[in-house]
Amino acid sequence: MTHAHLTRRGFLKWSLRSVGAAAALGTGGIVYVSQVEPYLVQVRAHEVTLPNLPASFDGYRIGHISDLHMGGWMTPAHMETVAATLDTLKPDLLAITGDFIDHMPRSIEDDLKQTLSMFSAPDGVYGVLGNHDYWTDAPFVRRVAESAGVQMLDNAHVTLSRAEESLVVGGVDDIWEHQQDLEAALDGVPQGAACVLLAHEPDYADTVALDGRVGLMLSGHTHGGQVRVPLRGALILPALGRKYDWGMFNVGGTQLHVSAGLGMVEPAVRFNCPPEITVLTLRRA
Ligand SMILES: [Zn+2]
Q1: What's the CA gap between 131 and 97, in Å, rounded?
Q2: What are phi and psi of 229, to 5 degrees?
Q3: What is the pLDDT of residues 95-139, one digit of tens each?
Q4: Where are the alpha helices (DSSP H) in the chain?
Q5: What's the 130 CA to ligand 1 centre distance in angstroms?
Q6: DSSP assignment, residue 21?
């Protein structure tokens, strides 16, 4: 909305609200958005019904984290509490949907490796790259993540088996940088298979839904907007994350989970949008 489109009364109201918000923020508010809420990691849970989920995967639990953005504000010490929380949640599999780093200080290799090595799950830890990984150093992130035991799904999938039944877990490489190849990621996956896809940018769900094979897509990228105003939602969202900004969506039959992420981009503040760890429990229809 521009001022030109506001009536005088509307403009006064808008100005008063802005001044009110700034005053309410004050010193305490600034401390809250920069020093408090960014550390308030929430655990969220969703049940996702997949019509074609095999019986042996009913109740299967996927841990989902995203957007660590190691190197700036994010430290291994902070991630220790995240890893400890994940340990108590005990998901069957852990998915990390990109933006592992966005700064490249000298210590980042040790910090990233130490952080990712803290994560484990019985069926493995899987990851895809995000735009910030590409903008920093994609081959570096891939190498360090794999050395820490994260299996990178660069336009690839794995098939998990239980009692001769299968769950496909695939991933596409970063969409912003045009590295995605859904055909390659799902090569050989038959229609009707139970299939989960990791993809950093959530608005790609529109394309994924057209393919028809993915029952659940996991994304990050938006950080939920970092700042969410009650009744209005996110104030600022990145490209490829403006349609599906945070939470669960049904996109033409493909269910989509968009994580608010763990880290931040500048300005490093969060309001009404704390970092999150999500556990998605798969249910058979
Ligand atoms: Zn990010």
Answers
A1: 11
A2: -90, 130
A3: 999 999 987 877 899 999 999 999 999 999 999 999 999 999 999
A4: 8-31, 76-89, 108-117, 131-136, 138-147, 182-185, 205-211
A5: 7
A6: H
Spacing, Cα 193 to ligand 1 middle (Å) = 30
Ligand 1 geometric centre to CA of 70 (Å): 10
Q: How far away, in angstroms, is 6 Cα from ligand 1 center?
A: 34
pLDDT for position 10 = 52
Tell me, rounded to whole angstroms, the distance of Cα 258 from its chain centroid.
6
Take residue 79 and report the two structure tokens written for it.
């991630």
Instruction: Give residue 265 CA to ligand 1 midpoint distance, Å.
Output: 7
How far is ligand 1, taken at its centre, from the CA of residue 92, in Å?
24
Polymer length of the chain: 285
pLDDT tens, position by position, 204-259: 999 999 999 999 999 999 999 999 999 899 999 999 999 999 999 999 999 999 99
Q: Residue 132 has which token pair?
A: 């910030």
Rounded to the nearest angstrom, the distance between the alpha carbon of 162 and the centre of ligand 1 is: 34
* pTM exceeds cut of 0.85: yes
